[in-house]
């Protein structure tokens, strides 16, 4: 059910200017009945100026009179054609000016660590546009050389629960499509808390990958190493030949 504007101020006006019951006022403005009673006693909303719902096109005089005559009658908010669809309006999230300079770094982080997220999900999460996301994906952004990936939660651009919900939605969509995922992609689909709680998986270095198929029990005995002396390695000439050669040089 839709609620009127300035709920407490509207409740103050109805308490001061009508004989409608506290329960009826509470149901209309979305407050607790005891809170409305506190307004009447002066303990709640002290100093709040009443907001006239009739003058502001939220209630009709006929509706107020019906409620005053019948304690069981529920006040109905006046239909406003201009407000149709306001609650369902969708668009980029508003980002404060002080944080807009950090937004490209957050986009780069999402693109790098969560490539399964589509542009529309990133745009809604951090409040940006699809052309900006595309330029960062393709590394054609004008400031790409100075950008560093930073978690949008750490920057205050979104909540951790919002990020986890988007990641889980992407995981469900990926699983529904039945696309094959490697370990890295599967790990990226986990939420941050799940990733931190998960045990580290043992990995085999790429340099010795495949050696695990060999068994150590069937190894053949190694042949004894041959001994070499220095003369056989360097093929040094005999000492007699060297002396003869020296004598020839002298003569």
Please supply descriptive tags for the structure shown above.
single chain, mainly alpha, 2 domains, 13 helices, Cell cycle transcriptional regulator TrcR, TrcR
What's this, in brief?
The protein is built from 13 helices and no strands.
Task: Explain this structure.
With 251 residues, this protein is mainly α. Helix 1 packs antiparallel against helix 2 (22-29) and helix 2 packs across helix 3 (33-41). Residues 85-89 and 206-216 have low confidence and may be disordered. The chain has two domains: 7-83, no CATH class; 90-196, no CATH class. It has helices at residues 7-17, 22-29, 33-41, 61-69, 103-113, 119-126, 130-137, 152-155, 160-177, 183-188, 192-197, 230-234, 239-250. The chain is built from 13 helices and no strands. 17% of the residues are buried. It comes from Roseovarius phycicola. Pfam families: TrcR (PF06242). This is Cell cycle transcriptional regulator TrcR. InterPro entries: TrcR (IPR010421).
């Amino acid at each position: 059910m839709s609620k009127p504007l300035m709920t407490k101020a509207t409740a103050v006006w109805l308490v001061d200017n009508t004989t409608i019951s506290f329960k009826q006022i509470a149901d209309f403005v979305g407050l607790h009945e005891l809170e409305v009673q506190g307004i009447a006693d002066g303990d709640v909303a002290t100093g709040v100026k009443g907001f006239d719902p009739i003058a502001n096109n939220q209630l009709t005089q006929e509706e107020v009179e019906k409620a005053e005559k019948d304690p069981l009658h529920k006040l109905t908010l006046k239909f406003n054609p201009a407000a149709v669809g306001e609650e369902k309006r969708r668009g980029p999230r508003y980002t404060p000016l002080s944080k807009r300079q950090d937004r490209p770094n957050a986009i780069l982080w999402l693109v790098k660590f969560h490539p399964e997220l589509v542009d529309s999900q990133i745009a809604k999460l951090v409040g940006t546009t699809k052309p900006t996301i595309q330029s960062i994906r393709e590394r054609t952004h004008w400031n790409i050389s100075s950008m560093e990936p930073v978690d949008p939660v750490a920057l205050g651009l979104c909540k951790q629960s919002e990020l986890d919900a988007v990641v889980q939605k992407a995981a469900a969509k990926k699983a529904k499509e039945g696309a094959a995922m490697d370990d890295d992609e599967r790990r990226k689909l986990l939420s941050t808390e799940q990733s931190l709680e998960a045990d580290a998986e043992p990995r085999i270095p790429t340099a010795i990958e495949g050696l695990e198929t060999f068994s150590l029990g069937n190894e053949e005995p190694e042949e004894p190493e041959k001994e070499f002396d220095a003369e056989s390695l360097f093929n040094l000439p005999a000492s007699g030949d060297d002396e003869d050669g020296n004598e020839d040089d002298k003569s």
